[in-house]
Amino acid sequence: MANHSCCLWSFLPFVSFLFLFPCVNSVHFKIPRFNPEATSILYEGDARPFVGYVEFNDISYLCRVGRVSYSRDVPIWDSRTNQVADFTTRFSFNIDTHGKTLSDYAAGLAFFLAPVGFEIPPNSAGGFLGLFNTTTSDSSRNQIVLVEFDTYSNSEWDPPVQKSERHRLLSWEFSSSLEIKTTDEGKKRKRNKMIVVLVVLLSILMIVVTISFVFFRRWKKMKEEREERVNLTSINDDLERGAGPRRFSYNDLVVATNNFSNQRKLGEGGFGAVFKGYFNDSDTTVAVKKIARGSRQGRKEYITEIKIISRLRHRNLVQLLGWCHDGGEFLLVYDFMPNGSLDSHLFGKKTPINWPCRYKIARGLASALLYLHEEWEQCVVHRDIKSSNVMLDSSFNVKLGDFGLARLMDHELGPLTTGLAGTLGYMAPEYIRTGRASKASDVYSFGIVALEIATGRRSVDPIEENSQIGLVEWVWHLYGTGNLLSVVDERLHAEFDEEQIECLMIVGLWCAHPDSSLRPSIRQAIQVLDFDVALPNLPLEMPVPTYQYHQRIATRTSSTIETLVTDSNLGIEP
User: Fold this and answer.
1) Which class for 443: exposed (0-12), middle (13-18), buried (19 or more C-beta within 10 A)?
2) Exposed, middle or buried, 574 (CB in 10 Å: 0-12/13-18/19+)?
């Protein structure tokens, strides 16, 4: 199954760009009305030209950035004389707030000057104005002059609720002048010699850099391959001595899956496919995950999953039966789950699950998470809890699977810096912001699944057409108005225990609280689900997420979301 990853909690900043370059010419252009056929203007991001105007952005649920830039270099200074250009610019624009109140406005737009080649940074929407992100916002390398046309009074962080505006550029005029003093012939010759020397030096530098880059890439690849061989050897040595998962030969798995035929395929994702297998000698049906050849990320997840899940033993975790990494093929063998994944029953065409079974599933998932967070020798942060990773055996008992993104940490340690990876709709806001996974971010994901179980709605689907309200906001609103039962899945046909379903949804909201410090531990959530303690008193309105400044981090992946397609359909019948 495919994961869709994106930026959350800040919406729709729009930017107008001007390229700058240190040369010695004046520039003038005047665009009273935009023409889509004109070649003097570049449109990037969401910006689109129409007759008479430019539309900067789409109106959607996602953070959007659009920009318009002049297609030619614009000089601002003469490198020989250090003379600076004078310039004047005029432009008219329209901001349509759709009749919203001031508190609901989005982030506005900005006119800015930047060096040639400046690109829209990833994850730069909202309060970052399309110019910065968490990695670059404090960088001394930022050489940008900008004028912001802000429609929302931001604190340090962009407002974390979904906001949108429509921005249009109607006209644009720009003039610059740069007077250059003439030089004598001697200075010209001297300048030409310097240019020749610089060109030679730059050419040599480029050759050195290119060679260094090639050698670095080769060294890095050899290092990764060496580490992979060490890890695989370690897996063989550690697991083959134990009584747990065993090593399968590739030929055995070829026979069991009928040579990985399409008729045996259960599901497919970005890093491989899952097949149904059968061993005649033991009369056993299994699920075989085959990692796609050439997928380095898939092999990393393969190693991580074996090292973690092979050591775990719990009734609510998928059991790893064995592994294979022969001849460059990487495969994992699991117990076959006849009832497939939870999402196929909640959102697919399979027969809906009745309420007692749903409550048992929620309780079983919580039990699996309690084992991972508190009961095993180390804390396991799963990082990808979602309904498609909740597998169901023949009795609809929960088996949590797909540990390819999981990380180990000591029980007493706080959030773990992991880089951002996961699935849209299930990632906690502070995890998106900081890249730090924790038990609290897993609890948030559990809360989302709990709400999906009760409502029968996907966390990422809009509640209504053209609506910007997500599942948590919608349920919290109805909780505040006293209409919580109106969100219950209609396919239950009102056949449910009102006390239980109200309990599950309130616990779901509690676990999905925007402030991680106000979420329960999974043990506390279980106590409420078991009716050992009273329901929590939640605010009637959904709170706004808050972040501490010192929690900001800059990691290799903090400015981009890894799009990791994790596929855990270990038992979906074709």
Assistant:
1) buried
2) exposed
Q: CA–CA separation, 150 vs 29, rounded Å?
A: 26
pLDDT-derived band at 73, boundaries 50, 70, 90: confident
335 is known as an active-site residue: no
Which residues face 322 on adjacent strands? 246, 333
From the candidates 78, 158, 384, 567, give the one annotated as an active-site residue.
Answer: 384
Ramachandran bin of 9, using left for φ above 0, alpha for ψ from -120 to 50, beta for the remaining angles: left
Pairing of strands 272-279, 379-381: unpaired
Q: Where are the domains of the chain?
A: 13-182, 184-242, 339-551
Q: What is the pLDDT of residues 177-205, one digit of tens each?
A: 876 655 556 577 778 888 988 999 999 99
Within this chain, domains 13-182 and 339-551 share the same CATH topology: no
The rounded distance, in Å, linking the Cα atoms of 126 and 249 is 52
DSSP E strands, 137-186: 145-149, 166-177
The single residue listed with the structure tokens 């931001």 is 154
CATH number for the region 13-182 comes to 2.60.120.200
Kindly tell me the sign of the dihedral angle through the C-alpha atoms of 492, 496, 502, 503: negative
Alpha helices (runs of H) in 456-574, residue ranges in sequence order: 471-480, 498-511, 522-529
Domain 339-551's class? mainly alpha
